[in-house]
Specification:
160 residues; 6 helices; two-stranded antiparallel sheet
Length: 160
């Protein structure tokens, strides 16, 4: 175990760190509560739509007042809400475990963990070939306004 984890005490943490962890926890618990509520709703709507025949009715055919379109719409809506709430619970739980607040920070952390940061630095330190350097310098000059383009009448622009 690292020495950081052994010597870390929450009482000595900064107020910003405590607030950040509280926000992560709050998001996870909110998503968990929504997941519990939507799963109870799905369970109750499934039980309410269940066909229970009386003693001498056949259980192989639904009653005539049964509406397949409404049943399909409720199933799709319930499935969508359940999928969204479970996904948000998993995402916010993962963010809480990884100590990440948003997607940008998640991308940065993954890049750091997978070694992308060092590779990006090494790529930035590589020597650029002449043609790429010329194109980069030309684009920088255009963006800086060093070139003034003028229409010569033939429909093409020429630099002064």
């Amino acid at each position: 175990m690292s020495t950081f984890l052994q010597s870390f005490k929450i009482s000595e943490a900064s107020p910003e760190y405590k607030q950040r962890r509280k926000m992560q926890m709050l998001k996870f618990f909110t998503a968990s509560a929504i997941t519990i509520l939507t799963s109870r709703f799905a369970y109750r709507s499934t039980i309410a739509r269940q066909y229970v025949p009386t003693l001498f009715q056949g259980n192989h055919s639904p009653p005539l007042s049964y509406n397949f379109t409404t049943d399909a719409a409720v199933a799709v809506a319930t499935g969508t809400v359940l999928c969204g709430s479970v996904s948000s619970m998993l995402i916010f739980g993962g963010f809480w475990v990884l100590d990440v607040l948003n997607l940008g920070e998640f991308g940065w952390r993954m890049k750091e963990k997978l070694g992308g940061l060092e590779k990006e630095k090494a790529l930035g330190e590589m020597e650029m070939d002449e043609e790429s350097k010329y194109i980069q310098d030309s684009l920088n000059d255009i963006l800086d306004g060093k070139y003034d383009f003028e229409d010569d009448g033939s429909g093409t622009a020429a630099a002064k």
